[in-house]
Specification:
This protein has helices at residues 5-16, 29-36, 38-50, 61-72, and strands at residues 22-26, 77-81. By secondary structure, the chain is mainly alpha-helical. It has one domain (5-81). The protein has a two-stranded parallel ribbon with strand order 1-2. Helix 2 (29-36) crosses helix 3 and helix 3 runs parallel beside helix 4 (61-72). It is flat and about 35 Å long. Residues 1-84 form the NB-ARC domain. GO terms for molecular function: ADP binding.
Length: 85
């Protein structure tokens, strides 16, 4: 830890994100997962991808996975997941 991996990932994300239809940079996956759970991460991802429009609050992980798959399958997306176990 502490060698700047997140900073490097953020710079690359900022430089490349304009080439994609949708993008999301999810930081501290491990910490958010442990404190708020997977549905929160799914909501965050969908909010980023859809710009916060048309999002329902996901409470069920399997429902969130189906929604993410159906939305992402038709778009060119760039997703960075930081601090994943």
């Amino acid at each position: 830890g502490g060698v700047g991996k997140t900073t490097i990932a953020r710079v690359i994300y900022n430089n490349l994100s304009s080439e994609f239809e949708c993008m999301s940079f999810l930081e501290n996956i491990r910490g958010v997962f442990n404190t708020r759970g997977l549905p929160h991460l799914q909501n965050q991802l969908l909010g980023d991808i859809l710009g916060g429009e048309g999002i329902q609050n996901i409470n069920c992980v399997s429902h969130g996975a189906i929604m993410i798959k159906s939305i992402l399958s038709s778009k060119r997306v760039f997703i960075v997941l930081d601090d994943v176990d």
